[in-house]
Amino acid sequence: MSKPYGEDLTASHKDYAVFLPAVSGFYQTYVSKQQQTIGTDKQFVPNDRIPKGFENGIEGLNYFNKEKGYFNYKYGLYSAGHAHLDVEKSMVQESMFHTRDKKETIVVGDSGGYQIGKGVLKFDWENFKGKSANAMRDKILHWLELTADWSMVLDIPSWACDAQHSPKTGLKSYGDCIAGTVHNNEYFLKNRLGQTKFLNVLQGFDNDTADVWYDAVKHFPFEGWAFGGNNMCDMNLALRRLIILRDSKLLDNRDWIHFLGTSKLDWACFLTSIQRQLRKHVNPNLTVSYDSASAFVATAHGLVYTSPVHTNKRWSYIMDKATDSKALKLSTIPFPWE
């Protein structure tokens, strides 16, 4: 195989916990639609709109492409909540994910539970086990099996029953969220084709509520775990749950643990330490991952990463307004940030 074109960010990953860029719909749309129209007179992005430094065009932004990517990274996360759930349309309109080399890349699929709880994805709450709801479950399940190597089961997030969201969902209690998740788990288990590995999602606000959720779903024979709710941001909750999973032998034959929607630098270090200890003492094949959409959301709001701050009071990346001036057209001034 020829040498990769751009910087290989995977090569420097070593044994760190895996960061998953949560790729936005608009980002993959540019890559995928350009793939479909390249060389035609109706290119999605015309050549005169592509900067001279982008010698591989829009395809250079496809970081799964080792031959043309301006940088290469083998991991990503994409959500059914942003996706084209018609799988035939997805093959065309989300080709960034479908044309990747699956032997060289790993995509984790989010089931869209967040978007369902928010009411973005329409779900038949009045007939939760009926034909219309099952049609949505089928669409999500089939899309995940088509697209992802690992996938979240379709959990109903614990916040979906609060006063803000219950008018959209009809959920009245935490128990309703658990019951809905259990039903979805059973549906996925019965109807899956085996083309993706599933992560059993854990929710909870504190030890007691997290235990109730865990006891309701722990028996499902999925291939890994996903920590949601406060499990992904409260280290006491997370470590306690990991110890329970270890002592219950429910990490021995699992391969992946994902922490949903967290990417703070300190947690990247915490999760790396957790992964190393789990591999050393429990299961050498376990991978721990975490994700964030911040880079894509920032772009949508005209922000850019500048310089990180590493002090004992603040340890994070800093964003600021991106330079946006027509006066800089054709300028050769270098970008000010590394």
Strand order of the largest sheet: 2-10-9-8-7-6-5-4
Give the tally of β-strands.
14
Q: Could you name the ranges where pLDDT drops below 50 across 5 or more consecutive residues? A: none
What level of helicity do the residues show? 25-40%
Number of helices: 11
Biggest sheet descriptor: 8 strands, parallel
Top-tier CATH class: Alpha Beta
Overall mean confidence score, pLDDT: 92
What percent strand? Answer: 15-25%
Structural class by sheet pairing and helices: alpha/beta
What is the structure about, briefly put?
The protein is α/β, with parallel strands linked by helices and 338 residues long. The chain has helices spanning 25-37, 87-93, 95-98, 113-118, 131-147, 166-169, 174-191, 207-217, 235-247, 265-281, 294-300; strands at 7-8, 18-21, 71-72, 75-79, 106-110, 150-152, 197-202, 224-227, 256-259, 287-292, 303-305, 309-310, 315-316, 319-321.
Write the layout of secondary structure elements.
Blueprint: E1 7-8, E2 18-21, H1 25-37, E3 71-72, E4 75-79, H2 87-93, H3 95-98, E5 106-110, H4 113-118, H5 131-147, E6 150-152, H6 166-169, H7 174-191, E7 197-202, H8 207-217, E8 224-227, H9 235-247, E9 256-259, H10 265-281, E10 287-292, H11 294-300, E11 303-305, E12 309-310, E13 315-316, E14 319-321
Parallel strand pairs: 1-3, 2-10, 4-5, 5-6, 6-7, 7-8, 8-9, 9-10
Antiparallel strand pairs: 11-14, 12-13
Overview of the structural elements:
- The strands form 4 sheets. An 8-stranded parallel sheet has the order 2-10-9-8-7-6-5-4. A two-stranded parallel ribbon has the order 1-3.
- The radius of gyration is 21 Å and the shape is globular.
- It has 11 helices and 14 strands.
- The protein has 338 residues and is α/β, with parallel strands linked by helices.
- The mean pLDDT is 92.
- The two termini are 30 Å apart.
- Strand 7, helix 8 and strand 8 (224-227) form a beta-alpha-beta unit.
- The chain has a single domain, classed as TIM Barrel (Alpha-Beta Barrel), CATH 3.20.20.
